[in-house]
Every structure is written in C-alpha cells, then in structure tokens.
Amino acid sequence: MSLSLWSCRSERSLYKAPIKEEGASYLLTQLENHELKYKTFAAKFSLHYADGKEKTSFKGNIRINRDSLIWVSIAPVMGIEVARILITPDSVKVIDRTSKSYFLESYEYVNQYLNNALDFDMLQAFLIGNDFSFYEDAHWKTSIDGGLYKLATANRRKLKKYVREHEASEIPIQNTWLDPKTFKIKKIMVKEIRPARSRKLTAEYGNFFVVESQMLPLHMEFNVKANNNVNVLLDYSRVQLDKDLRFPFRISSKYEEVKLNR
Questions:
Q1: Half-sphere exposure (CA, 13 Å, Cβ side) for 29?
Q2: How many domains does the chain have?
Q3: Burial of 233 (0-12, 13-18, 19+ CB in 10 A)
Q4: Residue 119 placed within a domain
Q5: How confident is the model at residue 14 (pLDDT cuts 50, 70, 90)?
Q6: Residue 15 has pLDDT above 50, yes or no
Q7: Residue 6 within any structural domain of the chain
Q8: Residue pLDDT, tens place only, 129-159
C-alpha cells in the first residue's frame, strides 16, 4: 500500500497543468519584460561551425555595446589571437593576424555577399536571445505548440526611424516560441521565400543561467538553410553585464587590405 501511494504521488508530481491560452498583447508584454536588459555585454565563447564538408571549432571573447558595435576576438590556441572582428550598423572590419591582412567593407555589402538578410539589430538580438527591438509589434497570431507559446507574424516591418539607406526593412515570416514560465525565447525562426531563392534561419536557446538577476541562454544553436546549409553551436561562459569595456581595433600599417569580389 505504501509503495502504491508513493507511486501515485510521484505521478501527480510529474503532471503538468495545461498552458493557459493568452493573447498576443499579453505575450509580447511578457517577452519585453523578461528580455535581457543591458548596456554592455561581455563573455568568453566556444563555437562549432559546420558548412557542408567544412567543419571548424574555435574559442574567443565577445563584447557588445548595445545598438552600437559587436567586437570579437578569436584565439583558438593558447590564448593567442588569430583574428579580430568589429561590426557596427554600417560596417564590418576584420583583422587576420595569420595572413597579416585586413578587411573593411559596408555591413550591407557583406550581408549581400553572404546571402543573408540580417541587419545589425537582428544579429545583436540573435546573439543575446532577445526579440528584434526596432520592429513593429502588429498582426501577431498566437498558439500553443509543443508546450510553448508560439507567436507568428508575416511582413513585420522595421520602424521607419531606424531604417538605413538600402537596408532591408521587412521580415517576411517570423515565428517565436516562448517558455510559458520564464517567457524567454526558446526558439525563433525567420524565413524568406522568393521565386529565385528561399532562406531560413532558426535559432534555439538552452542552458539558461541567472546573470545579474536576469536569465540568459548560455547555449544556442543556429541553423541556416539557403544556398549552403550552415550549423553553428555557440556556448558562453564568464558572462558580464554593464561593465566598462574597451573595444580596441588597430590595423598595422604592415598589413595588406583584402577586397571581396564585387
């Protein structure tokens, strides 16, 4: 009898109450309230990249000055830096210490070269696990999918005051899945379907950790389906928020400039 009663209590403890259906306005408010709020972000990272037959892994440091710049130092062996990257809303700069070369180009051109449609705000949000902050919040549909809240919208437009010249200002399709307890993003998908091409980027987040009383995903997986399929696994450690950070980026006069094929 004791075993039977213990078994019943165990089964009841594992039972999860059904998720209450909520409207888009409520879910978007909760999403905003629970997003990571920061001015600066710094962390160590490890990254695994796979693109068809090519696979590579490396470690480094990342620093973000919100809405302004993303700084990355890649140092895979013994802490010796092999590359440094500086991304702003307008430009992408890379120093390659192994070949003693550097690269300077507009953000828009690099995006087109990589066959991507990510503006700076979207890239920044993907790296943190936040929603895209400079886009309108109209015309969302809600549902429950796999124990998560799902928000879906089409043709989500960027707010006019944040649109830059020649920049894509619309997300054709966006789906976002929220944890019903924490309202943190567990998965997000953006998709573009055109007669000449179809592109989809999916990000999944896990291993949430409390940093400065806020929840942050320490593990994320990105899958890109376009001309080439790309898989990226990214893990953070030693995360710091709102510290005074430096973003050094000096190009040696001995380095040679490299240009993309136009």
A1: 5
A2: 1
A3: middle
A4: yes
A5: very low
A6: no
A7: no
A8: 999 988 888 789 999 999 999 999 998 888 8
